From TrEMBL, chains A, B:
HAMAP family: Kynureninase (MF_01970)
Protein name: Kynureninase
Family stated for the protein in its record: Belongs to the kynureninase family.
Gene label: kynU
Residues engaged in binding pyridoxal 5'-phosphate: 95-96, 123-126, 164, 193, 196, 218, 248, 274
EC number in record: 3.7.1.3
Gene3D superfamilies assigned to the protein according to its UniProt record, in alphabetical order: Aspartate Aminotransferase, domain 1, Type I PLP-dependent aspartate aminotransferase-like (Major domain)
């Protein structure tokens, strides 16, 4: 790949103009949108309007002027990105809290099934929360097995199979229809964590027959740091599951102020406390970018961007751990290297922001909405240069930071 | 009270100038700051900086530039308002989620104590969440008794006494030291919901020997709609309790990405998911207003404002359900009336925003930071006029809204 070839791809890119809808800093190539998505330009005004007009001027009246329905309205905007119906998704709480709610609820469906099955090396909060969830249901337990042993571990005791669709380190992607089918055939519920795949790859939860899902608002959905997460329950299950976090916003009649809890119909029962409206407004602005974008063009561009970095990494002699088959991966690429942390620091020094994942992973996110082919080509050149001249061995790059 | 007397009180008010630090709409007297606090003027810039610079320009780097410590830093700013040490408070999640976390943890301290005791008519989410929490601990149950039977209901099975310090409808305030002592003497943990009292009245959790507390960021702390809540654990208990919502942000080493959960030391273990930074920034700006305010002057002014409305309500022949003793109440006043909803609508029509609480309560919040004595005097005049001329009986005020 040459710079001219990258530019030719940009010239032919049907979604190239979407980049103009983001406020990107000068002098930076941002390959960390899989950790924190970039700022949509319209979010500045949306957040400003939320603060100054909706809160400052309208005050409490805004709850009747669009706030109270925001979790469902925003859920409906997430739905087309994950192959769900508008009334199967709601935006609320954190991914962690949502995993807890759904796991405890899933464990209560069939008292004969007591096991949450998940993958060793899954994103930590999934496993940590699963520990917490099984401790809340008598007899429940968490079984964590290697990726290649998951399907054979499904059995008559499996209540729910909890998997992250795209792996946060390697970008490996599960075959959602096939795995969901295997869970169903074993009599278990299938729950997907879409944090690294929503907005990154094509997803069709309804078609796959998935039962439950959660995902993150602040990665490929560009909802802002710590944005509200989302939660999906297949329509057929919605009346059978209820939230253990039975807060007033999920009550059938929250403003009747009754002592006894009664879950709302539909997805509203998954709400806990009062929706965080500043965060909700930013998430909604992030989703509004997606509303006019040709989604298949995004998935195709992701694959093209990936190939550019894979070629550069290969030329640099790096060990790529992400699958070469586009259908088998998400929208980031990871290279294993014993000096991964220093390499990431040296790249940042050259204006290429990626991130490091303990202990030895250089992880580079590819976000088609706001990265051009030329951006990624330049990042690839930087990667080759850092490896070739060993600039990552400079002492200042050896200092570890708490978060990258 | 005459207008001139109210103006004289304003002239002598040591905190009168704090009002200028809020962006208040023209033509409105806002008596609903106990439901949603008003907008501090500095919050507009703080939220704008969070969005445009911290997120937009610094992107992922901001996690190392002040974000990751925000829950503890903001907790430390709440601490002086509730009589806690800086390392006993953390800002996170919703009040509802925080009640859940602390109740489940408290029920695990002593397996011989299985009862959560609370008050009939407590704020609904406290009771709803308590229902959800006891369902997560084998043998646990929720006992709800009338206010005057609470202390006698304490017994050898009581694990935790969960009370709201200031009642959301009546503004009745519990004697925190006396009730906390009674719980302790019964061997139970004492947990306070400070949602209607933090920033409204003097609170000294440490002095009272309280064990646990939660509270709301969007009422008297002026943190914005759906602001993060807070959570307090007395230092002596911090190593003995752990969160059932065992998310990665509460892990001892979140960026080591270990499969097994290990709670962080201190208050950090109460974090669940990634902190919602837009909401956190607004809460922090709201708390910064408090940092330079003479708090005892706030509590004194609250009592003075209350007396103005109590006098007006008395002149209008209204039935005040809020205690006359300042030490026995919070910072709102409630009147019972069979046409309460229409009265609130008629007041809004005159530019006085209060709220209605089912079935028969007119609730008016008194927020000394941004209400003058004259504001409240004018609100009292409006209340008297609405009752005297029966304007609340106009047909348009009979329409119920979902939220007020």
């Amino acid at each position: 790949m040459t710079r001219d070839e990258a530019r030719a791809l940009d010239a032919a890119d049907p979604i190239a103009a979407v980049r103009d809808r983001f406020a990107l800093p000068e002098g930076v190539i941002y390959l960390d949108g899989n950790s924190l998505g970039a700022l949509p330009a319209a979010t500045v005004a949306a957040a400003g309007d939320l603060v100054a007009r909706q809160w400052g001027e309208r005050l409490i009246r805004s709850w009747n002027e669009g706030w109270i329905d925001a979790p469902q309205r925003i859920g409906a905007k997430i739905a087309p990105l994950i192959g769900a119906a508008a009334d199967e998704v709601i935006a609320c709480d954190s991914t962690s809290a949502n995993i807890f709610k759904l796991l405890v609820a899933a464990l209560r469906v069939d008292p004969k099934r007591r096991t949450v099955l998940s993958e060793a090396g899954n994103f930590p909060t999934d496993l940590h929360i699963a520990e917490g969830a099984v401790a809340c249901v008598p007899g429940a337990r968490l079984e964590v097995v290697p990726r290649d042993k998951l399907l054979e571990a499904l059995g008559p005791d499996t209540a729910v199979l909890l998997l992250t669709h795209v792996h946060y380190k390697t970008a490996e992607r599960f075959d959602m229809p096939a795995v969901s089918r295997a869970a169903r055939e074993a009599g278990a519920l299938m729950m997907w964590d879409l944090s690294h795949s929503a907005g990154a790859v094509a997803i069709d939860l309804d078609d796959a027959g998935a039962d439950l899902a959660v995902g993150c608002g602040y990665k490929y959905l560009n909802g802002g740091p710590g944005a509200p997460a989302f939660l999906y329950v297949a329509r057929a299950l919605q009346d059978r599951l209820a939230s253990p976090l039975s807060g007033w916003m999920g009550h059938a009649e929250p403003f009747a102020f009754a002592d006894a809890y009664a879950p709302a119909p539909g997805m509203k029962r998954w709400l806990t406390g009062t929706p965080p409206m500043l965060a909700m407004a930013a998430l909604e602005a992030g989703l509004d970018v997606w509303s006019t974008v040709d989604r298949p063009a995004v998935w195709r561009k992701s694959a093209a961007l990936w190939s550019i970095l894979a070629e550069a990494g290969g030329q640099a002699g790096l060990d790529c751990v992400t699958p070469a088959d586009p259908a088998g991966r998400g929208s980031h690429i990871s290279f294993r290297h014993p000096e991964a942390h220093a390499i990431v620091q040296a790249l940042i020094d050259r204006g290429v922001i990626g991130d490091f994942r303990d202990p030895d992973m250089v992880r580079l996110g590819l976000t088609p909405l706001y990265l051009s082919h030329e951006d990624v080509w330049r990042a690839g050149e930087a990667l080759k240069a850092v490896i070739a001249d060993r600039s990552y061995r400079q002492p200042q790059f050896a200092v570890r930071q708490a978060v990258t």
